[in-house]
Amino acid sequence: MTEPPRRRTGQRGPRPDRRPGARPAGGTSRPVSDPPRRAAYEVLKAVRTADAYANLVLPAVVRHYALDPRDAGFATELASGALRRRGTYDAVLAACVDRPLTRLDAGVLDALRLGCHQLLAMRVPVHAAISTTVDLVRDVANPGAAGLANAVLRKVAARSLEEWVPQVAPNAATDPIGHAAVAHSHPAWVVRELRNALGERAAEIDDLLAADNEPPAVTLVARPGRATREELPGDPTPYSPYGVVSHGGAPGAIPAVAEGRAGVQDEGSQLVALALAAAAPRGPDRTWVDLCAGPGGKASLLAALAAERGAGLLAVEHAPHRAGLVARALGAGATVAATGAPGVVGVVAADGRRPPLRPGGADRVLVDVPCTGLGALRRRPEARWRRRPEDLIDLGLLQKELLGAALDLVRPGGVVLYATCSPVLMETAGVVQSVLASRPGVVLEDVADVLPAVPDAAGPLPGTVQLWPHRHGTDAMFMALLRRPDGPAEGPAD
C-alpha cells in the first residue's frame, strides 16, 4: 500500500550499512533483530519484568550489544520515547488490534510500542519501522505473532500522531483529564494531581505534561573549590552559578567529571543544595547533615560548599548500597562513618528517622525525602506507570517522619530544608503543614530570600518554592525552609 506522507520529528532511520531484518550467513531463515532495536526492547523488558529504571539499564544494554555512539543514541531515544508515550501508543494500538491489549503477549506488546514510536515520533521510514519490528517480534515471541505485528503497524502507519489523538482520546470539552491523559501519555490520576498542584495556573497543565515528554538536557555542576564552570563545555545555567547545560558528548570524557571535581546534576537539584547553604543558622555553623543522601549528587555539592566554610558534612543514607554510591560520589576524602566534625565528610548507612547523631547536634539539615518522583518524569519516564495513588499515603507518612527527625536533629536556631522532587500537594504543602501544626515555635521562612532570582516559582505555601519543567527547565523540585526556635535543645529523656 502507498503510505501517506507525515510530519515526523526525532532520530534518524537505520544505518545504511545494516539491512533491516538481515539474515545471517549460513542460510538459516531466522531473522536477526536490528541491534539498536533489540537493545531498546531489552530495556522495556527490564522495566516491565524487574521494575528497573531505564536510565540505569541503558548503559549495560548498550555495552552488551556493543553499540557505537550513533546506535546508542537511537536505542536510547527509542526506549525512552516508547516509555514516555506508552499511554498514547496503547490507545492507538487498542484501536488497531482485534482483541484487548491484555491478551497480547507482553513481549509482542513491547515490540509494538517500539514500532509505534518509530512510526509516529521518529524519522524512520515506514517500511523500515514495520519490517524491523516484525523481525523483532519473530525473535522475542513466535513466527505466528509476526503477521499480527505487520497488520497492526500498517494500520498505525495510516495516520500521524496528530491525527490519531482525536480518534482515540476522550473529548477535551467533556473530559479534559481523560483527554490530557491520552494526548500526553500520563495516567489520569497523575494528570489530576499535577493540575491541582498548579493551582490558579491549572491552564498550564498541557504545557507541563508536554514538558514531561521532552528528554532533558544534560546539566553539569562544578563543585566549588574543586572546579569552575568555565572548565565545563556548555552554556551557563540561568539560576545556579555552578551549572552548565552540556553541549553534548559523554560527561565522563570531561576531565573535571572524570576526576570527581564536577558531576551531572539537574539545575533544580543544584538549587536545593544552594538554598540550604545560603540559609544562615543563628550561632555556630560547623555541622551539616544530608539526611537522605543517596545517590550523592546534592551531598557532593553540599560537601564542597561546607568545606569552603570549614564545616563538616554527614551524609546519611538508609540503603547500604546507596550509601556506597554516596561515598564514591563524595570521593576519597569521605569516611564511611558517622561524623560531623568540622572539615570532615562522613557517610553512614542508617535510617534517616533515627540518624546517628545526638538530637540538636546539627546546624543545617537537608531532608530530600523519598517521593513519587512525579516531578522528574522527563528523566524517569517509567515512574508514571509504576506509581499508584495509594503510594501518596505511604510516602506521606514517611515524609512527615523524616521531616520531624530533621527538626529533632537540628539545634535551636538551626535550619532544615525540606525538599522533594514532586509537586503533588500531599507531598509538599500537606507534609509541611502537618509537621508545623505539631511543632509549636518552628518557623517557615522564605526560601526565595536565599535563592538566586527564579521567576514564577512561588510554592503552594507562603515562603515555599516550586520549580517546574515547563517554566524553569528543571525537575519539579519543591523547597520549604524551616527554623527551630531559639531555646534549649530538645532530646529524649534520660
Task: Please give a handful of descriptors for the protein shown.
9-stranded mixed sheet; 494 residues; 4-stranded antiparallel sheet; globular; alpha/beta; 19 helices
What features would you describe in this structure?
With 494 residues, the chain is of the alpha/beta class. The chain folds into four domains: 128 residues, NusB-like (N-utilizing Substance Protein B Homolog, Chain A, Orthogonal Bundle); 44 residues, no CATH class; 46 residues, no CATH class; 217 residues, Vaccinia Virus protein VP39 (Rossmann fold, 3-Layer(aba) Sandwich), CATH 3.40.50. Helix content is 42%, strand content 12%. It contains 19 helices and 13 strands. Strands 5, 6, 7, 8, 9, 10, 11, 12 and 13 form a nine-stranded mixed beta sheet that branches. A four-stranded antiparallel beta sheet has the order 2-3-1-4. Helix 14 links the parallel strand 5 and strand 6. Helix 1 packs across helix 2, helix 1 crosses helix 3 and helix 13 runs parallel beside helix 14. It is globular. It starts with 34 loop residues before the first helix and ends in an 11-residue tail after the last strand.
